């Protein structure tokens, strides 16, 4: 029985998939500058997409020279073919949105987790979203909170917004939700700014207009001084809330 001695590979570049190519053809593409270390590659008919420099480390390893008095710096404890946290995050993003690869939130979650565990703030936030929405991982709000908080510690504004959404749906955590909403809005998150403006509008109308209007149009048996005091307190509360929660 004949066997295939050399496997063939598919290449994903700028949204298009080329191939199949043999190792020799890949070497020719590399030599002509048509194959880059950050292009995606996988075996034809099997396997997952990977970075070219990860799949074929020898193909992209260039000899480095430097003056004898200047040592070449390398990342301590990390092999040359290990992807960085940023590369792992970008692979996760590709799978999450289906950019040049089949859309797969399970693959995205795997790459996000690798990057998140190495401290990548956006990957931590995106992994938290998967847990909050139950996409390809069991819905787990506690895990979502863990990853959002890790990203928030690095001052990622989108993590503040996601924490505000998470806490707004949790009993007894509305004050935390308000604080994170304010942080996200003041740091330019459009959804947070829109929600904060809506909240301020509702509070202003209720405390600054409706309550004073009721006090003076429906006096009932309450003395004027009492109704006036309630109206003043309500308006003051509306003004204070607008100032305290200003953008």
Count of separate DSSP helical elements: 11
Radius of gyration: 28 Å
User: Which CATH class of the largest domain applies here?
Assistant: Mainly Alpha
CATH architecture descriptor name of the largest domain: Alpha Horseshoe
- What is the CATH superfamily of the largest domain? Tetratricopeptide repeat domain
**pLDDT under 50 segments (min length 5)?**
62-76
Largest sheet: 4 strands, antiparallel
Q: How do the SSEs run, as a string of H and E? A: EEHEEHHHHHHHHHH
**CATH topology descriptor of the largest domain:** Serine Threonine Protein Phosphatase 5, Tetratricopeptide repeat
Q: Strand order of the main beta sheet, please?
A: 2-1-3-4
Q: How far is the first residue's CA from the last residue's CA?
A: 74 Å
**Helix/sheet category:** alpha+beta
The structural domain count equals 3
How large a portion of the residues is in β-strands, by DSSP E? 5-15%
Structure commentary:
The chain is of the alpha+beta class. It folds into three domains: 1-60, GYF domain (Dna Ligase, domain 1, 2-Layer Sandwich), CATH 3.30.1490.40; 84-188, Alpha Horseshoe (Serine Threonine Protein Phosphatase 5, Tetratricopeptide repeat); 190-247. Helices cover 57% and strands 7% of the residues. It has helices at residues 23-31, 52-55, 57-60, 85-97, 105-116, 121-133, 141-153, 157-168, 174-186, 190-217, 224-244, and strands at residues 9-13, 16-21, 40-43, 50-51. Strands 2-1-3-4 form a four-stranded antiparallel sheet. A hairpin with a 6-residue loop joins β3 (40-43) and β4 (50-51). The longest helix has 28 residues, at 190-217. The radius of gyration is 28 Å and the shape is elongated. The termini are far apart.
């Amino acid at each position: 029985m004949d066997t295939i001695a050399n496997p063939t590979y598919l290449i994903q570049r700028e949204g298009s998939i080329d191939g199949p190519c043999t190792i020799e053809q890949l070497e020719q593409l590399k030599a002509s500058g048509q194959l880059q270390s950050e292009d995606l590659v996988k075996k034809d008919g099997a396997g997952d997409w990977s970075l070219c420099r990860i799949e074929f480390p020898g193909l992209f390893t260039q000899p480095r020279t430097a003056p004898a008095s200047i040592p070449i710096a390398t990342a301590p404890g990390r092999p040359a073919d290990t992807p960085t946290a940023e590369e792992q995050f970008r692979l996760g993003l590709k799978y999450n949105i289906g950019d040049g690869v089949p859309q797969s939130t399970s693959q995205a979650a795997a790459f996000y987790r690798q990057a998140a565990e190495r401290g990548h703030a956006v990957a931590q936030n995106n992994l938290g979203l998967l847990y909050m929405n139950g996409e390809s991982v069991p819905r787990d709000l506690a895990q979502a909170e863990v990853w959002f908080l890790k990203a928030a510690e690095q001052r990622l504004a989108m993590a503040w917004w996601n924490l505000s959404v998470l806490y707004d749906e949790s009993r007894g955590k509305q004050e935390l939700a308000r604080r994170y909403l304010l942080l996200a809005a003041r740091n330019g998150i459009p959804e947070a700014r829109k929600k904060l403006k809506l909240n301020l509008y509702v509070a202003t109308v209720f405390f600054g207009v409706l309550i004073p209007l009721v006090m003076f149009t429906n006096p009932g048996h309450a003395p004027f001084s009492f109704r006036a005091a309630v109206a003043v307190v309500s308006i003051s509360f509306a003004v204070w809330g607008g100032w305290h929660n200003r953008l």
